[in-house]
Every structure is written in C-alpha cells, then in structure tokens.
Amino acid sequence: MRLHRPGAPLIAELRPQPVPQPGQILVRVHACGVCRTDLHVVDGDLPFLGAPLVPGHEIVGEVVALGAGVSVPLGTRLGVPWLGYTCGQCEFCLRGEENLCNLARFTGYHLDGGYAEHVVADARYCFELPPSIDDIHAAPLLCAGLVGYRSWRFARDAQRLGIYGFGAAAHIVAQVASWHGQEIYAFTRAGDVHAQEFASQLGACWTGGSDQLPPVQLDAAIIFAPVGALVPLALRALRKGGTLVCGGIHMSDIPAMPYSLLWGERSIRSVANLTRRDGVEFLALAGRVPVATHVETFALADANVALGRLRGGTVTGAAVLLP
Ligand SMILES: [Zn+2]
Ligand SMILES: [Zn+2]
C-alpha cells in the first residue's frame, strides 16, 4: 500500500519483492501496526519526501532471506521499528543519543515500511520480541510501546501520573505504569465516555475530559494526543516541580499562555523517536508485565479504512494490518 502524494489514499500495488542488501534482512510481514505517525506522513503533517513510499513501522515478521554479512537464522521472528538507520558518528550517536542522530532514517518514511507483504530492514535495528506475545498483539509494542516507554521513562518517578490522549501508546504505558505502582489519571476528549471506560479497565484511578482538573495535583503528565492546546491544560494540573512530557512526533501549535503556568520549576520536554536500548529494555519489560495490547485488525488492503478510523479517533487500543 503506497503513498504517492500526501492527502491522497494509499494505492494497492504489485511490486517486485525487495532484495536484501549487505547488512539487511528480508522480512515476511505477519502484522503491521498503524501508528499516528503514519497519519502524519499520509496527511502531510510531516514533510513529504518526494518519492512514493510504503508506510508502516510497527512490523512483526519472520526472516526469509539475508543480505551479505548477516547471520540471523532464517525463520527468526523479529520486530522492525521506526528507527531504521543511524550514522553512528555524529555527536548525538557518539553520546548514546542515536534517537537524535542527524542522519537518522526512519522506517515507513525514509525507508519503505510494513504496509506490505515483505520489507527489507537493517538487521542491526530489528528487535527480538517477547515469545509470550503473539504477532498481532506484539505489533503495537514497536512504536506505541517503544515511544510510550521512552516518554514514560521521564515520568517513572511520579506517583501521580496524568496521561492525555488515551490511544495506542497510552493503553500500553498505563499497563506499565500500573505495574510500576503509579496512580494514573487519564484525560480524554471531553465526553469520550468510551475511552474513559477503557482507561478505567486498564487501571486508571480517575478519568475525565482534558478540560477538567484532576482531584489532586499531578507529579508528571504525558501528552500523547497531537494537540498543542493540551500543554497549558496539562501544566495547570501539575504540582510545582512537575514534569510535562510531550510524546508525539507532531503537535499543533501551542497557544500563548501565562508564565505562571510554568513557574514553580515545572518543565516541559519532548520525546523523539527511540534508541535501540529503549527497545531492548521495553520489550523485555513488556514480556514481564505482561503488556496485553488491545487491537483491532484490518486486512492490508483496508489500510485506508484503518487510517480513517484512527483519524476519526474511533480505534480502541491499536489498529493492526494483516497482509
Ligand atoms: Zn548519528
Ligand atoms: Zn509510530
């Protein structure tokens, strides 16, 4: 399913099977999650890079062919994430911050992704998956889970944790946070009773609309919804010294706000991409918790339907495409 220009539907195409180059593996896709970032790519919120591309960066599949220099056993089950390549030489890579690499290439954006039957990937950036979690339920771990985990790392010391936007990432982070002993305050679109019930089932001790204040001041909050107007709302809910983490790759403009919302040593930070270390840590943790993802499956040919449902906010948990 290929994107030819932003704003247009993906087009189903028959294409030659990709051939793995040195360092790459050919993966037969078993399942591919649909991430909000795919929507940002398809809708043109992220700059279109000029060439047609296959979206998808929550890929679970099995290795079916190897490029030169790769020794992964054929048949190995692996996950292919958003981070597809880093240079290993820039100041960020050398500092262990490969998520910030100046020359990073991302799956389903710079590199063809998993809305397909096969994909090639650099073997060094693929992850082993927890054996206890099947393909369909493992797919959302590869971005919603990983980026959610990286966001949560900056809020893991909070006793009272707010989560704004209760979609795929939030439903995974809530399980990890609950397991970690945190209280979860879940904020959804005003009046979204369905999402609030879902959050309660996953362990939230309080749910409400994002325009509401929680009954207590929060130690930290994570915003997963791509809505800049949530930043002042979330700051208002934080205690002095609290941390606000913005977990999305794209957000609408943040409205002007009084400095008093930030005053008192509150801080705001964004989270970008993932490192391979995040992946290894999180996937081990996901198996231990264990994280149970809620998924809704779609046939690969219905990728546009799945994207439409995500755009409309009517997916509970995560959407997953099956080739
Ligand atoms: Zn680099
Ligand atoms: Zn993603």
> Which term fits the overall shape?
globular
Order of helices and strands: EHEEEHEEEHHEHEHEEHEEHEHE
The hetero compounds bound to this protein are:
zinc ion
Sheet with the most strands? Answer: 7 strands, mixed
Could you name the key traits of this structure?
single chain, 323 residues, 15 strands, 7-stranded mixed β-sheet, binds zinc ion, 24% helix, alpha/beta, 6-stranded parallel β-sheet, 9 helices
Please summarize what this structure is.
By secondary structure, the protein is of the alpha/beta class. The chain has nine helices and 15 strands. Helix content is 24%, strand content 24%.
Describe this protein's structure.
This protein is an alpha/beta fold. The protein is built from 9 helices and 15 strands. The protein has helices at 36-43, 91-94, 135-138, 144-153, 168-179, 193-201, 230-237, 276-288, 303-311, and strands at residues 24-34, 59-66, 77-80, 83-85, 105-106, 118-122, 127-128, 160-164, 183-188, 206-209, 218-223, 238-246, 267-270, 295-299, 318-322. The strands form 3 sheets. Strands 1, 2, 3, 6, 7, 14 and 15 form a 7-stranded mixed beta sheet that branches. The protein has a 6-stranded parallel beta sheet with strand order 10-9-8-11-12-13, sandwiched between helices. Helix 4 packs across helix 5 and helix 4 (144-153) packs across helix 8 (276-288). The model has no long low-confidence stretch (mean pLDDT 96). The structure holds zinc ion (2 copies). One zinc ion (ZN) binds next to loops.
Give the helix/strand layout:
Elements: E1 24-34, H1 36-43, E2 59-66, E3 77-80, E4 83-85, H2 91-94, E5 105-106, E6 118-122, E7 127-128, H3 135-138, H4 144-153, E8 160-164, H5 168-179, E9 183-188, H6 193-201, E10 206-209, E11 218-223, H7 230-237, E12 238-246, E13 267-270, H8 276-288, E14 295-299, H9 303-311, E15 318-322
Bound molecules: zinc ion (ZN) (2 copies).
The site of one zinc ion has 5 residues, from loops.
